[in-house]
Amino acid sequence: MLRENWNDGGPGFHPVSSSDYLPAAQLRDLQLRRLQSIVGRAYAHVPLFRERMDARSLTPASIESLADLGGLPFTVKADLRDTYPFGLFASPMSEIVRLHASSGTTGKPIVVAYTQEDIQVWSSVMLRTFAAAGISRGDIVQNAFGYGLFTGGLGAHYGLEAIGATVVPVSGGNTDRQVMLLRDFKVNAICATPSYFLHLIERAVELGIDLRELPLRAGVFGAEPWTPAMRQRIEADAGIKAFDIYGLSEIIGPGVAAECSAQDGLHVFEDHFYPEIIDPETGAVLPDGEEGELVLTTLSKRAMPMIRYRTRDITRLVAEPCACGRTIRRMQRVGRRSDDMMIIHGINVFPSQIEAALLAVEGALPHYRIVLRREHGLDQMQVEIEVSPEFFSDRIGAMEELRRRIAHSIHNVTGLNVPVRLAEPHSLPRSEGKAKRVWDERQDSQ
Amino acid sequence: MKISQLSTFIENRSGRLRAACEALAASGINIHTLCLADSRDFGILRLIVADPPAGKAALEAAGYVAQLTEVLAVEVPDSAGGLARVLATTDAAGLDIEYMYAFSTAPGQQAVVIFRFSDPDRALAELQRRGLNVVEPVKLLQG
Questions:
Q1: Closest chain A residue to B5 measured between Cα atoms?
Q2: Which residue of A has its CA nearest to B99?
Q3: Does the pLDDT of residue A315 top 70, yes or no?
Q4: Are the Cβ atoms of A423 and B46 closer than 8 angstroms?
Q5: Which architecture, in CATH terms, is A3-338?
Q6: Where do the domains of chain B lie, and which CATH numbers do they carry?
Q7: Which of A394, A395, B62, B87 is the most buried (most CB within 10 A)?
Q8: Which stretch of DSSP H or E encloses residue A54?
């Protein structure tokens, strides 16, 4: 591969991105050495991993090839919850420089930690993410991912600084100001959730600003599922190229995988995050090309190694060479999950959280359902509740107040503003057998 | 005397109001007057009916959520300023009105205003003390 081709549209090639082009043999060798090291670290410092490996009579020495990874136990989201807050840390607090947290299933967040080295790795994979989107030194980039406990804002921020771009750390919200900054600062690229950027496009139209006439040329979008139709709409309405990125806090945050200029699958930064695809029912490892659940192992994370973490995201790995010249494998865009977690506007929501929120309002659980719909290519959630005698009042104000309290309670638990609809008794469909709470009315699951 | 008002929750969907009225009709319950308060996607139907407990049972049997609440029916002269004078009285008594609606029993002579006060017992005492004619249920339902 000629070095001139190592370029996704930016004016220059950043040396950190060279890891995207490692020859296969060298990449596998690097992965194996890192895997052996990380398994040893997890075994030595994290009781949960050691107990599970001991139970299978495994030791770090059992890992002699990458295929041996398939014999190690899985780690699941509940493990993070059960060891809340610091139980899976492999580094003493004196070496941990950052904590992040994301929503959990019972109101307790999932806590993740980073050493200084972890932050450097994170910056490097985010640098590679932005390089693949053609962003480089000299670009002005507006970062509309939320700053704070959410990994999106700071993850993107460090990567942008590392690549030498000029960061506008605006965080989420205050859309009018976002539009003004895009125009006044002559911003070249933006990071956001696709749903928020869609909202921003609509607001810009209302303000009489045509985004297609601004210098904005690229958008880096992630943290929630979106569809090819949504991408087409964003690209047409904003006059930009829209890139999909993938990540999760448990692994590092954004920066696990990213689209390149070919926009045909997301390159997994597999020198740091080793991907496997498994059958979600049996746990058996599937070959490249077959669809299944994505399982990730952090190869270089120090503060919080993850061994075979089950993401619950359904995808497949693509080993065929990419038009961009990268040798690291690609994963297909994630369209669905193997559990009941919903991702709404970038926030993870479980049905159990909605139930807890409803219980918190009156202490009694009304008959309800959660309806998922797809509007403008994005997942939307509505909660519908049957009005039972104990919830009914003949005053409109009291009923509106009930609806407000329910919406407020859901917001408290999930952080989302979810539309709540009050329904007549017995009007919501009921399932036979096990109570079905989530009604998926999205037209296509991809 | 307080009057028992029947109320029910109606979704803002076509046919739901009709189905509620049909449920009452099927049980032979006459509607003397009604008021539909609506919000964006639901409404609350309030009814003065001949037999409120039977009306509640009929609606519940048809799958509706129903409730009986105490309201006062106040006679108001059907002429300019009639209602304003009644409201001046409720104001003077410091009565808190949740909602109200009116109907005319004998056009040009008397109208009846249904009041839902936050404290019906105190409202009844205050209105009678101030000389307003609070209609008896029997008389109203015959009217």
A1: A394
A2: A395
A3: yes
A4: no
A5: 3-Layer(aba) Sandwich (3.40)
A6: 3-68 (3.30.2130.10), 70-142 (3.30.2130.10)
A7: A394
A8: helix A47-55
